[in-house]
Design brief:
The complex is a heterodimer of chains A (555) and B (232). Chain A is of the alpha+beta class. Chain A has helices at residues 2-17, 154-188, 194-214, 226-251, 257-274, 279-303, 309-325, 328-377, 379-395, 397-417, 425-443, 464-474, 518-531, and strands at 23-25, 29-32, 59-68, 76-81, 85-90, 93-98, 114-119, 127-136, 148-153, 423-424, 446-452, 459-460, 476-477, 483-492, 496-504, 506-507, 535-542, 545-553. Helices cover 30% and strands 36% of the residues of chain B. In chain B, the strands form five sheets. Chain B has a five-stranded parallel β-sheet with strand order 2-1-3-6-7, sandwiched between helices. Chain B has a five-stranded antiparallel β-sheet with strand order 12-11-10-14-13. Chain B folds into two domains: 2-113, Response regulator (Rossmann fold), CATH 3.40.50; 128-231, OB fold (Dihydrolipoamide Acetyltransferase, E2P), CATH 2.40.50. With 232 residues, chain B is an alpha/beta fold. Chain B has helices at 10-24, 37-46, 64-71, 87-93, 105-116, 171-177, 221-231, and strands at residues 2-6, 30-34, 51-54, 57-58, 61-62, 76-81, 97-100, 128-133, 136-141, 145-151, 154-159, 164-167, 182-186, 189-192, 196-202, 206-211, 216-219. The chains are: A alpha+beta (555), B alpha/beta (232). The A-B interface holds A 379-380, 382-384, 386-392, 441-445, 471, 474-475, 508-512, 517 and B 9-12, 14-15, 36-38, 57, 59-61, 65-66, 82-85, 100-104.
């Protein structure tokens, strides 16, 4: 949509650039001094110079010939681009003035840099006319701007900027909306993503840049303030040229962000220093530097196979093409818009990634819930338990009943914790104890449970210790006394919590080395679910058995 | 009968032992019980057994990994396991039976009865013959087998590629495991009927079977009638 608007803008501005007045005019000539005859149509100014020369505080005159080949169809106007204050004469007739030129005892009142004058129709017939300006420029003396005189249909002179502004404001409005939206997004999101904030700033700066650029059409800017606007535009461009590559470097995880930023800043400052006073050139170089920096980052992103890098590359190449074919002002805005569009696109990719992450975390949680429930209904556990149970019931119904009770209790606890992400550590210990009762009936080995230093207010992921306990039962052989002891201890330090779980027994030899089975995967997934990457899990053989350590860091 | 039980649940191992003794009564010369694959395997290396009762999930180890090397041996294997989903696969490897947990005396006895039943059993889903060779076990697709020749306590497998392999199980034991397409045509020959071309009758009423590859095998007098029925 935005691209279409830009296109229309260009089309419109080009079509309206073609003047409706068929005219020729000779180069403007200058003469320092003051003489009322110099306004006359028939004054011979052949000795005047095409260079302004140093006019200092003095009054000087400028003359220019305008030839109408056809009688203009509508009221004629003149657009004058000049620094200073002046009176305007058309064939010797005073048409109007801009500001007040220096008079005795009265300092000059500066005029506006751009001004429009309507020429009475009676004076605008076919043939040769003389525009003469009586000028002073007592401020900004060093600036010797040539005076631009452009005849055209008066209404067009006024209307053309309006059309241009309407499109530019439309674009600026879109950027303002985007800026506000992304600011809100940054403020209200739990994950403070600085790329979002940077993007909001880029949009805001871009809005400000467009407003500053086209403010000249609806504010009378006196020529003394003329450079202030350009200076502001320069610094806005400077900031954008710094932020856009920064944004790309964050988005595409560029390895040397800091170095890149520092180098970029140095280059931009150097450009500013070298080309002071050449405002347009400076802004153009800024955007060139920005473009090159972005290109480097994007090229690197393509090598890293980052998502969206190819889109941004094509965007950058398109801006280069546009800049090559278009008048600078438009080119700048269009290429900036393209870049912002690229960023917006990247944003949608990013949002999509966040959505995917969220979805997969939901999936993980439900998968873990499922795994927890499966613990007690997987055939190996259930059928071995049932087989032992039948045997106990056949042999000694009383103990068989105890066995059944213990199993029911384990099921109860499992049921009550199955949907929790974290449970009180005491409940976990209860679960482990009932599990040991069940396993005692099955394995006919004495299992003993000890715990020390447990803080009852602590919470842990469900079946975490239970899983490690299962592993301990599976991979241990009791010592000669047919006893296996399990000990859980808790420790709190300044920056982490630690659970150690010790299995006191002989370790079985394994046929095949395994990287911790499903059990350890479950433990690690549960830890990640609750503590992201703030945990450490070590499980290894230790003197006298097996030792598992879980550390959970505060930060 | 010399019997080995590999089961890591003490209670279940004792149940198996009790029921096995109840079934075989006087015919048992020894029952060994081990709760891990390693110990069970080393027992097999050093002792001769007639029957193995094997759980497929032992202390988290997958019993399937060693099933190949078990069925390649001279004894019958009965799987006693909770993982019924593994039953079909176990049969393709050539186990005698798959007893699902929880089991009772009746079900286990049914499995034991298969040991002594001569000829075919109900389940014939065996797909491979596991053969021990130079310390390794190799699975041979039974489609590859032309015929099997009994050689006392061993069997010789004659394969389509012209090679021969030796199997530790007797021909009678293999006959219990192999599918219906294998027919006993002689006291020393078990033939895959898919490979049979026609029966050749020689004077003096001696019969032979011509195979598709041109080999000729003898047919036992007592087997001729039954074979003739099947060939048509």
């Amino acid at each position: 949509m935005q691209r279409l608007l830009i296109f229309l803008t260009i089309a419109l501005s080009f079509s309206s650039c073609k003047s409706a007045v068929t005219s020729e005019h000779s180069p403007t000539v200058y003469q320092t001094g003051d003489n009322s005859l110099w306004a006359e149509k028939n004054f011979n100014d052949s000795s005047w110079s095409t260079k302004r020369g140093n006019t200092d505080q003095q009054i000087f005159w400028a003359r220019s010939v305008v030839k109408f080949i056809k009688t203009p169809s509508a009221s004629i106007g003149l657009q004058i681009e000049a620094f200073g204050a002046f009176e305007l004469y058309w064939d010797g007739v005073l048409i109007g003035h801009n500001g007040q030129i220096t008079q005795k005892n009265k300092p000059e009142q500066p005029g506006t840099a751009t001004s429009f004058f309507q020429i009475p129709s009676a004076l605008a017939d076919t043939g040769r006319h003389i525009v003469a300006l009586r000028i002073t420029q007592s401020y900004l003396n060093g600036v010797k701007r040539p005076i631009g005189i452009k005849p055209d249909i008066y209404a067009d002179l006024l209307r053309r900027p309006l059309i241009l502004i309407s499109f530019m404001n439309l674009m600026a409005g879109a950027f303002l909306t985007a800026a506000i939206y992304y600011f809100f997004l940054f403020l209200n999101s739990r994950r403070k993503e600085y790329s979002v904030l940077i993007f909001a700033f880029i949009c805001l700066l871009f809005f400000a840049l467009q407003i500053t650029e086209y403010i000249k059409f609806y504010l009378d800017i006196r020529y003394t303030d003329f450079f202030l606007r350009l200076e502001i535009i320069g610094w806005l461009t400077f900031a954008i040229a710094l932020l856009v590559p920064l944004y790309f470097s964050i988005q595409f995880s560029f390895p040397q962000k800091k170095a890149l930023l520092i180098i970029l800043f140095i280059i931009l400052i150097t450009v500013y220093g070298i080309n002071r006073q050449h405002y347009d050139l400076t802004a153009m170089l800024y955007s060139l530097v920005m473009w090159l920096a972005s290109l480097i980052i994007v090229a690197n992103a393509i090598l890293q196979r980052e998502k969206g890098s190819l889109i941004v590359l094509s965007g950058l190449l398109a801006t280069a093409a546009i800049n090559h074919f278009l008048f600078y002002d438009f080119g700048l805005f269009i290429s900036f818009t393209m870049i912002v569009l690229c960023i917006l696109y990247l944003h949608t990719i990013r949002t999509r990634m966040i959505e995917d992450e969220y979805q997969s975390s939901l999936l993980l949680s439900s998968r873990l819930q499922l795994e927890l429930i499966k613990k007690n209904i997987q055939p190996h556990f259930l059928k071995n338990t049932l087989t032992s149970m039948i045997d106990w019931v056949e042999e000694s119904p009383k103990q068989g009943a105890e066995f059944i009770q213990a199993l029911a209790e384990e099921f109860d606890i499992m049921n009550s914790i199955s949907e929790a992400v974290l449970i009180p550590v005491r409940q976990e210990i209860e679960l482990c104890k009932t599990h040991l009762t069940v396993m005692q009936f099955r394995k006919e080995i004495r299992y003993e449970w000890e715990d020390s230093g447990i803080e009852d207010s602590e919470y842990i992921p469900p079946a975490l210790i239970h899983t490690i306990l299962e592993n301990g039962i599976t991979h241990s052989i009791p010592h000669a006394d047919s006893l296996i002891t399990f000990k859980l201890s808790y420790l709190r330090t300044a920056n982490y919590k630690q659970y150690t779980f010790c299995t006191h027994a002989l370790n079985r030899e394994v046929l095949k080395k395994r990287e911790g089975g499903n059990g350890f995967r479950y433990v690690k997934a549960r830890l990640t679910e609750s503590y992201a990457d703030r945990w450490k899990f070590i499980s290894e053989a230790a003197p006298g058995g097996w030792l598992t350590t879980i550390q959970i860091y505060d930060k | 009968m010399r019997i080995l039980i590999i089961e890591d649940e003490a209670r279940i191992a004792r149940r198996l032992e009790r029921m096995t003794r109840d079934f075989f009564e006087q015919n048992i010369s020894g029952i060994a019980i081990y709760d891990s694959l390693q110990n069970g395997l080393s027992y097999i290396e050093n002792h001769t057994i007639d029957l193995l009762l094997l759980d497929l999930n032992l202390n988290g180890e997958n019993g399937f990994d060693i099933l190949e090397s078990m069925v390649a041996r001279s004894f019958h294997t009965i799987i006693v396991s909770a993982n019924t989903d593994k039953a079909i696969t176990a049969f393709t490897y050539g186990v005698l039976d798959f007893v699902a947990k929880p089991f009772d005396q009746a079900r286990l006895s049914m499995a034991f009865r298969r040991i002594n039943a001569s000829g075919k059993n109900a389940e014939h889903t065996m797909k491979y013959l596991a053969v021990k060779k130079a310390g390794n076990t190799r699975l041979i697709d039974i489609q590859e087998v032309l015929y099997i020749k009994g050689a006392g306590i061993y069997s010789e497998l004659y394969l389509q590629n012209g090679k021969q392999e030796l199997h530790d199980k007797s021909m009678e034991m293999l006959e219990q495991l192999l599918p219906d397409s294998f027919e006993r045509i002689h006291k020393s020959y078990l033939v895959s009927l898919d490979q049979a071309e026609k029966i050749i009758i020689k004077p003096g009423s001696s019969y032979s079977l011509l195979l598709k590859n041109g080999e000729i095998l003898p047919i036992g007098r007592s087997k001729y009638k039954e074979l003739k029925q099947k060939m048509i």
